[in-house]
Design goal:
Elements lengths: L1 H10 L10 H35 L3 E2 L2 E2 L15 H5 L6 H4 L13 H18 L4 H28 L4 H29 L1
Antiparallel strand pairs: 1-2
Length: 192
Amino acid sequence: SHLVASYFICTGTSRSIKDCSSSQKSEMSSSVYTCFLATVGIILSSYALYVEHKTSHPTISEGIEEDFQALCDIEAISASCSQVFALPEGRLLSYFSIVPHDGILDVPNAALGLTYYSIIFFAELLLEKTSLVKKLTVAMSSAAMSSSIFLGIKLFQLRELCILCLTTHLLNALLLIFYVRQLVADKKTKKD
């Protein structure tokens, strides 16, 4: 891709980062930022899927259910991600009747997050930053942020504290702000 080629051109053995144009440096630092946020999102979403699986399918050893304590269940501050994941809102696609309950596409929100962050990560690495790609990332980030706002309101109404959820909501906000600012900057550049 354009970014990968720019990275190798700018960091190759015969050239130093000082030889890169300011736009190449900016593009690389932007990609590092969004790839970092996406990587954190992938890690958090993967852990959320693990917690959701462990709580909904407990391990039974010698006829006794093994006790599972998620890292994000912090009793001292009354935080419990495992309880939040079990709520009906933990599966937004069936909650909003987009897919049938218990159907093959009735996946936890963490699976949607894992898909979203993976797409963002690979789009940053592999796709040229065309106007269409930028508009699609804004659209995807808007959808992710919309679900974050809905879920944040629900958590507030239910008086539930989910540190993992709040962290992914923050990631979604940072990604949306970044992509919207990038799109606005591109429109200003085209007008000049």
